[in-house]
Structures are given as structure tokens and as C-alpha cells.
Amino acid sequence: MDPYPKPLKDLISQLRRLPGIGEKTAARLALFIIGDRENLAGDLSRSLSTVKDSIRLCSACFTLADAPRCPICSDPTRDPSIICVVEEPSDVLALESAHSYKGLYHVLHGLISPINGIGPEDIRLSELMERLSRREVSEVIVATNPSVEGEGTFHFIARLVEDAKLPVKVSRIASGIPMGGELKYMDQVTLASALRYRRNAKDR
Amino acid sequence: MDPYPKPLKDLISQLRRLPGIGEKTAARLALFIIGDRENLAGDLSRSLSTVKDSIRLCSACFTLADAPRCPICSDPTRDPSIICVVEEPSDVLALESAHSYKGLYHVLHGLISPINGIGPEDIRLSELMERLSRREVSEVIVATNPSVEGEGTFHFIARLVEDAKLPVKVSRIASGIPMGGELKYMDQVTLASALRYRRNAKDR
């Protein structure tokens, strides 16, 4: 005898599709949603359906937007001569939270990864080159994660720009010890990178 | 400049209403939902809306159901002479998972708690007494949590049954050291309770 009514079981199995949500948490969330007197089920259902219908990708930078252009690309105060290249829309949100970058973005939606069968044509690289070919951009900052794929994609972009003989500087975000981090807990690759890319004290 | 499109912000704030979901987790879940290619947003939205429209309380025991009677109350193999009284529908699910109880349930939807202004009339106690008055029940097992409110509600029910002069035995689930627990980590109240309600070795 299964004591869960079917709609509740369905909700639990849908919630289990979310990352980090196991059987017990899904059941707890479902029971909370059912017991909520302020119509959480209705509000959440409506919000999900709106997101599904209205979220698209910005036609210029391919980050998440609810209009043809995202708020960043539509902002006349942003500097269109710098493009920061990232892997995913969440990277844009992370960088924006630092409030220190005033250029535009380009979201690749993936990284080149031969081991996973993802080649340059599977990510938004041709769209990036098309943007650069309009000659309005002076620098591309490649802010992919410091992983094998992130580094590989950086080198690939640098090579593409060089081969196309575009007057564009390609740079890479710094990698090293994070602020507040401790040397004794850092892995060898991070330490080697932090040493190799050390700054001159005279540089600001 | 806020980089989140409004529908995404809305979804994040709805997800934050769930227990144990903070700002970062809500953002992570929302981005996962948007990025999911198997229509998680649509499925979850539909499931929430179905739950909202179809889940009701069983007219007999007040646990969650998608029909006038829950599967347990509709099951002819369950013993209608025993009623297990619990605080919430999730307690029914927990007890059912033990596969050792074959009677029916009664969900109070709360516990008597004078400090929170919850009196006997605010929970499903009159409905319990009405079920008992039909003289089909021989035992009521009060399985509320072993808390101040749970114990108080147990004593209140025992008194009600006594005052109504019903031929019903009122019992209380055992409290003590949980299986696999260690005495050295138990609180004093649990230890005192485990000693007080010790079993005779001759009892099975």
C-alpha cells in the first residue's frame, strides 16, 4: 500500500530532477509546498511557466534575456570595445556581482572538449568571430574557468584571432590564490600558476 | 545594472520560499531549470498546478489524498479498530515506511500549544472523537512527537476519551534511545524516559 497520492508522487519525482535534491528532500519540499497556505504551488507553477515562455538568449551576447537584447547589451553606458568571453550565463551573473567590469559579454554555451566530443563548431565561437569582424572591439578577455577545457578554449580563441589578423588584444583572466585563501591548502597547479604569473610590485 | 531578466528573478524569489533554499541555491536551481533541455520547467510547472488542484484531505482521516478517501482508508485489508493519531500527513508517510502498522490513521493538523495560541478546537480533535463515538474503534495509538506539545496533546486525548466513557484504550508510542543510537550522546530527558519505560525481559 503506497500512501502517497499520485499527484504528490509526480511532484516528488519532478523535484528530484533538480541538482542536489534527493528523495527525502524532494518529499520534504513537496509536503511543504502542499501545506503552504500562501499559494506557493500556484505562484511557483506560474513563475516556471513564465520563465519557460519568456526566457531566451540575447541575440548579441547569448546570455539569458527576456527581450531580443539583454539589459547589458542594451545599456548605452557599457563599453562596446571590450568583450568578456564566458562559458555560461551564470558566469555573467557572477562577474556582474563584482561590479568592476563595464564592457560587454559573449556566452559560448560550452567549452571545446574533444574528450566529450565538443568541437569549436558546437559552441558560439563563429558568432564571437562575427562580432569581432565588425572592428568595434579592441580587447577580448577570455574568462573561462581555469580548467583543461577553459585553457584550451582560450588558446583556440587566441589562435583564431591571430589567424584572422584582427587588431584585437586577447587576454586571460588571472588565476592564482583566491583572496582569503591560504597557500598551504592550495593545489600544486594553482601554486605554480600563482608563481608564474606573479606581478611586478611596480605595476598597479 | 541588474543582469537578471525579470522572469528569472521572479523564479529565484519563488524558489527562495522553499525551506532550506537560500539565495545562492535558488539561483543555481533556477539556472539549471532554464538550461534543462528536457522541459523540466514545463513538467514541474504542470506537476505543481496538478498538485494544487487535485490534492485534498481524506474525509475520514485528513491525510493527503487525491480522492474523497485516501488509499489507506479505502483499503479493506486495514484494521479499522485501531487508529493511530499523528500531527501531520508526513508522519503518516513516515510510519507507513516502517511497514509494521495495519490500522488506520487520524491526522490532527497541529498539536495543542497554548503558548502559540493553538487550542483543542484548532486541530482535528472533534473529528477524532466523532470517529471514536461510532464504537468501531478499540484502540487509539497517539503517535505525536515526544515534545511538550506532543505529550500535552496525548494527555488531552486520553482525558477526552476517559470523560466520554468510551470503551477505547489510549496508548502512546514508545520513546527512548533510537536503534543504533548511543547512550553517551543522548539528552537527559531521553535517558530518563528510556529508564522509566523499560521493558520486562519476559515481555516479547
Q: Mind explaining what this structure looks like?
A:
Two copies of one chain form a homodimer. By secondary structure, chain A is of the alpha/beta class. Chain A has three domains: 6-54, Helicase, Ruva Protein, domain 3; 70-173, Dna Topoisomerase Vi A Subunit, Chain: A, domain 2 (3-Layer(aba) Sandwich), CATH 3.40.1360.10; 176-204, no CATH class. Helix content of chain A is 39%, strand content 12%. Chain A has seven helices and six strands; from the N terminus they run H-H-H-E-E-E-H-E-H-E-H-E-H. The first copy, chain A, has a four-stranded parallel beta sheet. A two-stranded antiparallel ribbon of chain A has the order 1-2. In chain A, helix 1 packs across helix 2 (23-35). The longest helix of chain A is centred in the C-terminal third of the chain and has 16 residues, at 148-163. The radius of gyration of chain A is 22 Å and the shape is globular. The N and C termini of chain A lie far apart (70 Å). The mean pLDDT of chain A is 90.
**SSE string of chain A:** HHHEEEHEHEHEH
Q: Give the C-alpha Rg of chain A.
A: 22 Å
Largest interface, C-beta closer than 8 angstroms, per-chain residues: A-B, 59 and 59 residues
Can you name the CATH architecture of the largest domain in chain A?
Answer: 3-Layer(aba) Sandwich
At the third CATH level, what is the topology name of the largest domain in chain A? Dna Topoisomerase Vi A Subunit, Chain: A, domain 2
Biggest sheet layout of chain A:
4 strands, parallel
Strand composition percent of chain A = 5-15%
Quickly count the domains of chain A: 3
Q: Which structural class is indicated by helix and strand composition of chain A? A: alpha/beta
Q: Strands of the largest sheet of chain A, in order across it?
A: 4-3-5-6
- Based on the structure, what is the oligomeric state of the protein chains? homodimer
Low-confidence residue ranges of chain A: none
What's the helix count of chain A?
Answer: 7
